[in-house]
Specification:
Rossmann fold; about 325 residues; binds zinc ion; five-stranded parallel beta sheet; 15 helices; alpha/beta; elongated
Amino acid sequence: MSLREAIGHAAPIRILQHALERRHFGVSFLFYGPGGVGKAFVARQFAKSLNCEKQSNDCCDSCSSCRTSDKGEYPDLHWFDVEGGSENIKIEQVRRMQEVMSLRPFEGKVKVCIIDNCQRLTEEAANSLLKILEEPSADSVIILMSTGLRLVLPTIASRCQKIRFSNLNRQQAECILEGKYHVNLEQRRYLAYYSDGKIGEALTLSQNEFFTQRDAVFSMLLQGPERRASWEDIFKDKPQSQQALSILMSWFRDIVFVRLRMPKEYLMNQDKQRQITQQAALYSPAQLFSMLDTLAKGFDYLKSNVNLKLLADTISVSLVWKN
Ligand SMILES: [Zn+2]
């Protein structure tokens, strides 16, 4: 893979390609933006491009340096993140980085140090990093990554070229889920919406029981009031309840869209168009808004540790059934 093959993030990639063209090292970048949108992917391709033997504004994917990088074995790429169940990036890790910076590159022209989750540096580690950023070695590039600019100490951020990453749009997210991760059509449509373009979150959901729960919630919605007791099976614990509320929200959002005669491609639950259209006819506008209000309050109740049985009952009685 290469920078030109990245989906989305056109502005960050333009900045990085410009940096590659200038061949000006001894610089530090701060990649910031939501988690799971592709910062790490872009950082890897940029690091690979810095030492690609073709020395253009992208990696060639075929030289020996690119091939070693693809195997994750490139000796001049150093990746730091929280380690071993720790909450923070510690000063020992920054000292290791300092040692790396003091050595010549092993194979390539540039040493690349990446610190992921740099908002988790301890105070001592951040102060130590600050010294490295103040006097970067001329044969190195540092990339810091964070989920938000405000989470990074201003003294650190001010010493870096800041590059903002945004959520991917729905088409871009779908394209990655299909091309790179082979997620089927039904799931990728839903995940692209549900995760708001955050591929990391979409992938986590695609690999757990999320779609089983979604099927269970939808089957409850379609089966009628005699199944009321089973809502308690859906609202079993807090994480499952949170997920169930989000799934219900997506269903009623789609019903509102159908009532507003929005184009069908805007529906989150593309595979349930027929059932959603049928259910849309059951709800008056007042009932729909009341349902959405109940669901929104459900999220607040969960934060305050509400009794889950009570929450299940509240949702259940707000539903409208065909006579
Ligand atoms: Zn190459």
